[in-house]
Input
Amino acid sequence: MITRTQLSRLGLFDAKVPRYTSYPTAPHFSNAVAPADFVSWIEAIPEDSAVSLYLHVPFCRRLCWFCACRTQGTTTLSPVAAYVETLKSELDLLGRHLPRGVTLSRLHWGGGTPTLLSPDMMRGLIDKVRSVAAFAEKSEFSVEIDPNEIDEARLDALAAGGMNRASIGVQDFDERIQQTIGRPQGFDITRRAVEMIRARGVASLNADILYGLPYQNRERITETVQKLLSFAPDRVALYGYAHVPWMAKRQQMIPSDALPTPEERLDLFDTARRLFAWDGYAEIGIDHFAAPDDGLTIAQKTGKLRRNFQGYTDDTSQVLIGLGASSISRFPQGYAQNAHATSAYQGAVRAGRFASTRGHAFGGDDRLRARMIEMLMCDFQIRTDELVEHYGADAGALGALYAKVNAQFDGLLTSSDDGLFLSRDARPLTRIIARAFDAYDQTRAKHSSAI
Ligand SMILES: C[S@@+](CC[C@H](N)C(=O)[O-])C[C@H]1O[C@@H](n2cnc3c(N)ncnc32)[C@H](O)[C@@H]1O
Ligand code: SF4
Output
């Protein structure tokens, strides 16, 4: 049994550790990746293979105080319309380089608020995507939906375009918490959005909620989870609220003395976790819950759970193409990220070029470490046999590395020739343990020698 004092001493409560949606993480990207690399990586995609496509919409009508996403406020649709035209041009560019027969296993629209688009813009964008690549069999088209920013006409356009997974932002149902985080959203607004989504036969409903919010306590998070469960969502993301007012300036509106203590945060997560478990949801990785028949649950049971920029996925494609300002693409060769600023992104695409400005080309033991970190984040274990078979790793060197990391964590993990294993008690440390395998993290440089 690992105590809270031990967790605290091992760095749980004060570590600003990455969520490891990529390795290396985006702050370690450099300007060494340019549009020419992006083009060559696109052209190297095998013909007739399936890829994932992500489209980013960095606009919101309202700017919630708690939100740490990079997004810009707009009260009119004209900048959105101009941006959608740029996205369509970028899709045309992509179409010129994409090898023959490539299909889409996943299409995801994220933001910001993609549901800010008018129905006509949505239809135009879907048509453009389809003209560049057809959907693969059993593909998924998912959209992030702000319940405050959706209506029948927009949902009609999305459903007609093939959306089969809707992801709604809830955060918390408590009115006082909503006011404090600058995100008013009456229960009826969320319920209406859910009813409209279900009425269109959208197969799957996802929801985002947060723990660690100001004034949140056991009773309030219990009520929020119970209200959410009344919608029977297929998947829930239970993210820890990241309070970073030095980066996300709007968060300065949130009183930091109303935030729960680190110990209370752990308790809030645990309270919510138990409620989902009682209702039959499977615990997926560090912060997701899924219904027993959901793809994520099946992927977890069969060892096929993966991590990408959107969190957890059962998509096993090797390639994720991200279009739009700041979007990141992942290829077997490395990562490429588009310019952050909408103006720089639009300028490049309007000039007929891709907008890749940063990235990372894999070298050394990057792929091996990336997979080790992904295994930890998905399965709470690292298995030596897979690393030896698929990455040519040296079993002895791996064993020595596990032992070093285990010593750093006071022997609370289990390390053997077969791998490194985390008990349930150790799970809150997962991101910190993953960081011990991150050769780009300077504070862990002692484990960065080649494996
Ligand atoms: C990019 S937002 C899009 C959601 C959509 N615009 C909406 O508001 O419903 C995706 C999710 O990021 C999460 N998020 C945003 N800011 C966060 C923060 N400071 N800490 C943790 N999660 C955050 C929220 O749960 C949010 O639903
Ligand atoms: S939570 Fe959603 S609507 Fe609110 S600012 Fe963030 S992206 Fe925009």
